[in-house]
Amino acid sequence: MVRCVILALFLAGCSSQETVLVSQQTVLVLSKTAGWRHDSIETGVAAVQTVCAQEGWHCIATEDSSQLIVHEYDVVVFLSTTGDILNDVEQNHLKKFIENGGGFVGIHSAANTEEEWKWFNENVLCAVFAGHEAVKSLRVDVVEREHPSTAHLEETWLRVDEWYIYDRIPQNVEVLLTIEDNDGLRPIAWCREVKDGKSFYTGGGHTKDAWSEPLFIEHIRGGITWAITP
Ligand SMILES: [Zn+2]
To answer: What digits encode the pLDDT tens for the residues 102-119?
Structure first.
C-alpha cells in the first residue's frame, strides 16, 4: 500500500553513491458529487493538497470514483461528496481497502453519500445526514483532546459552519467534538477502527471560509494523520 520512491543520494566529496528507500504515503481525495455540490469543494481540495505537500504525502485529487481502483493509496478522503457515487465494484474495493488497513476520512457531506450502502453507513460513517439549519456560529466542545485532530484545540472552539443533524447518534465510536443547539446535543466529529482500518469523520467544512481557518485546517491535518498512521 505504501508507495516507494527511490532516492539516489550523491554524497559530496565522495565517489560512492548510496541508494535509500524512502516510503511516501498517498492520500486520494475524492470530491465527486451526485447530489448537492458545495461551492467550497475546490477551496477544500486545494487546502488538503497544501496539507499533503507540507506533510510529504503524495496527493491524488479526483472527481472520478474509478480512480479508487486504479491507484494505490493509504488514505481516501471523501471531501463533501454527495449521493450515490460508487458502483458495486468501487464499493467492494473500498470496503476491502478499509477492512485491510486503509484509512478513511469523511468531511461534511461525506455523511450525505452512499446512503443506500448499509455497510458504509453502519461501519464507516456511523451516522447519516438528516438535515441542517442555516450557517451560524456555534460553540464546539472538545471532548477528546488526545487525538491528533483535536490536540491543538482548547476545551471549547467557537466557529461558523453549517451544522448537520444526523439520523442517529453514532455508536461504537470515539467522540471527538460535540455541539448543542435547538436540534440537541450531538457529536460532530468522531473516529473508529473498522477491522484493520480506520475511519475519521468531521461535520465541518461547508463554507469556503472554513478552509482558511487555521484551527480547522489543523483539525483536518490531524484527522488524516491519524487515519494514515498504521
Ligand atoms: Zn453543507
So the answer is: 999 999 999 999 999 999
Q: How many independent structural domains does the chain possess?
A: 1
Domain hosting 212: range is: 3-228
- Ion ligand 1 contact residues with beta carbon within 5 A: 162, 206
| Cβ-contact 98, 194 below 8 angstroms | yes
pLDDT tens per residue, range 200-219: 999 999 999 999 999 999 99
What pairs with residue 137 in β-bridges? 160
User: Could you identify the residue written with the cell 457529536?
Assistant: 187
**Domain with 221 in it: what CATH number?**
3.40.50.880
pLDDT surpasses 50 at 6: no
By residue count, the chain amounts to 230
What burial class does residue 117 get, using C-beta atoms within 10 Å of its C-beta: 0-12 exposed, 13-18 middle, 19+ buried? middle
- Its pTM stands at 0.91
Q: Tell me the CA–centroid distance for residue 95 and ligand 1, in Å.
A: 25
